[in-house]
Amino acid sequence: MARNIPHRKIFLTVSASNEKLKWFAEMIHKHVTDATIFAASDGLIALGKLQNAPPHVLITDLELPKVSAHKLIDVVLKTWGNESTAVIISAPPPADEHHLDEIVTGRVQYYTAEPNNDEIFTKCLMRALNFTAHKQETEFLLRFLVPGDLLLKEGDKADFVYFVKKGRLRAYQVSGGTEVELGFVEVGEFVGEMAYVNGEPRNAHVQALTNCELIEVEVGKVDSVLFKRPSWSKAMMLTLVKRLKASNAAKKKGS
To answer: Residue 209 phi/psi, 5° resolution?
Structure first.
């Protein structure tokens, strides 16, 4: 049965340290909405929870009592039904090329900093969630960004439209090596909506200013998604009105 990641994200955190489990939970709740977290203090408990309810993301220490983390990770990577589960390992990466393919795709990541390093852990978390979200067969997916990430690049082909659930972004163009600020994209607005309207390449760069959670919809599925969700249709119209007003204001200012 497919999991519906746009509405709920399931995490399994594993560590013999209660302090570390608490920190993992605080970080997840800080950055992810609608998160359900299961915790385990040893590998045996974690193995049972993993087999009963595969999580979207497994976060584990490498050294665990009773059952090793390697066993847990092997269950995730090799067991049918866990194809969309991502793994964050709280340890330095191994010297050999272990899990190289999974590291490249973002499915496996090593969190090498000490606990309480918000920025580095958040990047691992967002990359893991992006991996698991794009493994789901749904009308729309989630996209996660950290500050500084580029969502759209001017001139790129426009394949997706995004709805902002959380966070703030800025739109800008580059002219003569100088960035020209166009405006900001807020919660409840669409971004990249001109791909749906006219199908032309992106006309601006869009960059995350904060941690962002966006709903990603293929351009070809926008009609169906909007038809089923009247509130999104209203949000789309309000976004287009805002863009039109901003464009008219810019023209008046330049005239």
So the answer is: -100, -25
State pTM to two decimals. Answer: 0.66
Instruction: Tell me the pLDDT tens digit for each residue of 193-249.
Output: 887 888 888 889 999 999 998 989 888 888 888 877 888 888 888 888 887 777 666
What ranges in the chain are assigned the alpha helix state H?
A: 18-31, 43-52, 69-78, 100-105, 118-133, 194-197, 222-228, 230-254
Pairing type for strands 169-175 and 140-145 reads unpaired
Residue 176: C-alpha distances to residues 152, 156, 180, 202 (Å): 19, 19, 10, 18
Structure tokens, 45: 């408990």
pLDDT, one tens digit per residue, over 25-60 is 999 998 887 899 999 999 999 999 988 888 999 999
Q: Lowest mean pLDDT of 74-83, 143-152, 163-172, 243-252, name the range.
A: 243-252
Q: How many CA atoms lie within 13 A of 117 on its CB side?
A: 10
| Buried-exposed string 108-133: b where 16+ CB fall within 10 A, e elsewhere | bbbbeeeeeeeeebbbbbbbbbbbbb
Q: Among 131, 180, 173, which Cα is nearest to 152's? A: 173
Backbone angles phi, psi at 138, to 5 degrees: -140, 170
CA pair distance 65, 45, nearest whole angstrom: 10
List the Cα angle 171/174/175 in 5-degree steps: 135
How many residues would you count in the chain? Answer: 255
CA distances from 74 to 6, 125, 163 (A): 26, 20, 35
- CA–CA separation, 151 and 171 (whole Å): 10
Rounded CA separation 23/118 (Å): 10
